[in-house]
Amino acid sequence: MRKFLAAMRNHPPIAVELWDGERISACKGPPEVVLHIKSRGALWGIVTNPDLYFGDAYIVGAVEVEGRLLRLIELASNNRPDFIKESTWFGKLMGLVAGAPRVNTPEDAIENIHHHYDVSNEFYQLWLDRDHMQYTCAYYDHPDATVEEAQTAKLHHVCRKLRLKPGDRVLEAGCGWGGLARFMAREYGAHVRAYNISHQQLVFARDKARAEGLDELVEYREADYRDATGEYDVFVSVGMLEHVGKANYRELGGVVDRCLTAEGRGLIHTIGRNRPRVMNRWIEKRIFPGAYPPTLGEMSEIFEPYDFSVLDVENLRLHYERTLDDWRQCFEASRDTVREMFDERFVRAWRLYLEGSIHAFRNGDLQLFQIVFQRGRNNDVPWTREHLYRHDR
Amino acid sequence: MRKFLAAMRNHPPIAVELWDGERISACKGPPEVVLHIKSRGALWGIVTNPDLYFGDAYIVGAVEVEGRLLRLIELASNNRPDFIKESTWFGKLMGLVAGAPRVNTPEDAIENIHHHYDVSNEFYQLWLDRDHMQYTCAYYDHPDATVEEAQTAKLHHVCRKLRLKPGDRVLEAGCGWGGLARFMAREYGAHVRAYNISHQQLVFARDKARAEGLDELVEYREADYRDATGEYDVFVSVGMLEHVGKANYRELGGVVDRCLTAEGRGLIHTIGRNRPRVMNRWIEKRIFPGAYPPTLGEMSEIFEPYDFSVLDVENLRLHYERTLDDWRQCFEASRDTVREMFDERFVRAWRLYLEGSIHAFRNGDLQLFQIVFQRGRNNDVPWTREHLYRHDR
Prior knowledge:
2 copies of one chain form a homodimer. In chain A, 42% of the residues lie in helices and 18% in strands. Chain A is α/β, with parallel strands linked by helices.
């Protein structure tokens, strides 16, 4: 461990304290963060199975971080020894802690966080924006926007990109708690049919729509988006593609092709990558089973087979860093409530996920793409993109 | 031929008149365009080798079009019989004329237009914009912009997307007559090193730069862009990627990777496709040897291997249709001069190329992509794209 820390570049202000009180430091001055490894077993677990074990060890308290977790992740990622090959942010952290090659994961010791805990609507209501319950990247259209304002701005940005107008028939694939669908109906007079397979989210979405008098305009269907029928002027999907899986992109394009009118417009909003890489294994195991953020090149399988024309791509990566940090602050402000709802392990898992994600977007490991497209022969395209920026707020 | 015309959808207002005066018509009313086929040989050539032969037959006058050539191309393309499989616009036209399967091209009867004729700077000066000599898509930022204004707006649009500022060191790959390089120096105070392999264009570019007192800021190098050396804040390439060839995209990305600073910005402006298809054979043979317009998916080979992050993609397809139509009008206004400089064949070849290209962009066969990118870990990104639209004109 000492050798490992000494090999780190720039003598980062990190110290490791072992279970017997021995402290090892890479830095010359005082450390900014101290990683406490509580037992020989924890060190062994981290050394033999770093990619998955550190996250689990952090959750159960077998390791502790003195100082901000994000800072440890950053320092580990940015100063890793040259002999550790580049990996995800988490792999880099593991590299720091373990200095061991990545090994296969054994049988899961902890179930994925969604299966283990009954993660309720109430939990997300504690820290997502109140108005729209958006669990996707916001759009901070002015520097001092709150997350509430930025989520509203995101919804407008999406609707403007789609040139949404009264009477438009919208197909939404993966609607979460239904905030975008209600927004499109209320603010733009659109008719939205939204697909989601989460029963719990749909109960919430329907209640909200009824309470707001929007149930004539919005229909939530508890079904796979691939079962969509009918004809639509607009296709929209915000934060679903991450869960679709690369092998299914062509099928997704086929659903859009089947449902969209000749003059229809489409938008996909998704986490992505600059180059193909597997998802961080801990996040994939514990937080988002099956998640895969694609590159633009990989996404072309959605569009090219059907002659869809990509009109506009915007990368909002740093908006997601800020969204996550706003969520994190709300989350930490509610952590006592969260602990009561679940337990300390849950609080720690969620903290690790939020901090790790902040780092991933800040560090360029993850991107956020909004892609606007329509059919190749449709000449009804906006002449410029000025309409997205010159409007009444 | 009669059978073929009868099979066309919607009874398009096309007639074919054969060498012996026989007229065959697909339409019920009077035709809008008449295709005159002047000899049995011409019909035979078109039938046996449609893809290449029609263009050549048109050039030499073995076929004539009464009415606007573009209209014939459009009608043929949009109403082709169902038994003709989809192809490029030109293949569709050939399908109309010939109803024959595509066959291999024999030895060229006519050399490619650039080799056959010494296409001079003076020729392009007759019909390109006077100020910047831009032989690439313009940007019509307001509805009644002239092509002169739209080319100036395009250059500003490119510079704003690159956030160009005084003192920036720019690497330009493929500079044509050097208009963008001079504009960047004059309007933004940038230092530009521009690569081009055309001696004739560079003589013009250097003369212009000297005359404008810009030769301290602009350096034109007669060399392949792959030979570029040095370090740059900006990489820009407008209208070169079409000529690079798919197999060389990774190498192009490598050149950018080698030359761009950690904080550098890049922009590629190129003709593209919605899905992979070969270039129209006549255009490829006669006008742009080796040209290949890529899809966004194909272009990812430039970016992904080097962790370049795509920030912004804009599709300006209909701006190119309008640019081409403005060029065509200037070209036709100068056709007597062009005929004197070259001959009637040249006039006809160029007309066919311009009309065919107008159709290709209008019909969605070709796209125009502007792609902004920078390194994956560079967080100096504009917060929104509003700066492209809110500025002093």
